[in-house]
Amino acid sequence: MEQTELIVKMVKDRWIASLKSCDHLLSILSDEDLLREIAPSKNRGIYLLGHLIAVHDDMIRLLDMGEKQYPSLYEPFLKLPDHPDTPMPSVSELRTFWSEQCNVLNQKFEGLKPEQWLEKHTAVSDEDFVKDPSRNKLNIIITRTSHLQYHIGQMVLLK
Amino acid sequence: MEQTELIVKMVKDRWIASLKSCDHLLSILSDEDLLREIAPSKNRGIYLLGHLIAVHDDMIRLLDMGEKQYPSLYEPFLKLPDHPDTPMPSVSELRTFWSEQCNVLNQKFEGLKPEQWLEKHTAVSDEDFVKDPSRNKLNIIITRTSHLQYHIGQMVLLK
């Protein structure tokens, strides 16, 4: 296997394994668990789940793979901090969004060839990309895997 | 820049940025903060810090870069769950270990050329490595970055 193909596969495998960890965690947490705070006066599980979906939704745009699927999640889960009075979808609805989104992302990611992962993402200009070629699509996966792991480490406290 | 060199740099940059996040967090948490539980009946900050140092210590062996520097941390922070009665170094000593270790790891990592990151790590046999070349040194960095982010997400709750 060619080196670029190998390393791109390693990065994608870590992303997919992280999604699976989150899936497993969601499967053992009840809706009631997810309505609790991860620690006193900290975010609730429902907020973390909605936040992850909103952040992953924005990846579609950054990776130039189409439009956001859940733009209404921006306000309650990215713009605003967690608050019980903020209108937001139910845990059950968010679970459905999460599963559907994982399938959509995996499908879109499969369509990209190794070299295409090294193309620039949409939030960087042509000029800046020449200066720093690490601002590519693969780096979006690398940074979002970090972000996902950070919040899995928090959500696991609801067990 | 050649592709392998570029992607290896991206992976290493994410590792270094994660270490820096942890550094920053440690700089704003007091020793007293680190002696608190991250959530009721969950691990204390001191345990997470010791655990990270113990896990990163084992990377030296896995990456074939020498011997562990802090083998005495295995028992209290890897083998045993967190317990206030377990003998362990003070927060202050662990802070020193953490800083020294970051320097040592960064120095050792700088010595490896991009292609060398794709060589097998020490926990995989030659035979298994042929079957799965992703079991290389770079993957140790990728998985340990995930692990670090997971626990940073927890330690941040002590703020």
Give a description of the structure.
Chains A, B: This is DinB-like domain-containing protein. Chains A, B: It holds the Pfam family DinB_2. Chains A, B: Residues 23-155 form the DinB-like domain. The structure is a homodimer of 159-residue chains. Chain A starts with a helix and ends with a helix. Chain A has helices at 3-28, 31-34, 45-62, 74-79, 91-110, 126-131, 137-155. Chain A is globular. The first copy, chain A, is an all-alpha fold and 159 residues long. The first copy, chain A, has one domain (3-158): Up-down Bundle (Four Helix Bundle (Hemerythrin (Met), subunit A)). The A-B interface holds A 1, 3-4, 6-11, 13-14, 18, 38-40, 42, 118, 133-134, 138-139, 142-143, 145-147, 149-154, 157 and B 1, 3-4, 6-11, 13-14, 18, 38-40, 42, 118, 133-134, 138-139, 142-143, 145-147, 149-154, 157.
Which secondary structure elements does this structure contain, and how are they paired or packed?
2 copies of one chain form a homodimer.
Chain A: H1 3-28, H2 31-34, H3 45-62, H4 74-79, H5 91-110, H6 126-131, H7 137-155
Helix pairs in contact in A: 1-5, 1-7, 3-5, 3-7
Domain DinB-like (chains A, B): 23-155
Protein name (chains A, B): DinB-like domain-containing protein
InterPro entries (chains A, B): DinB-like, DinB/YfiT-like
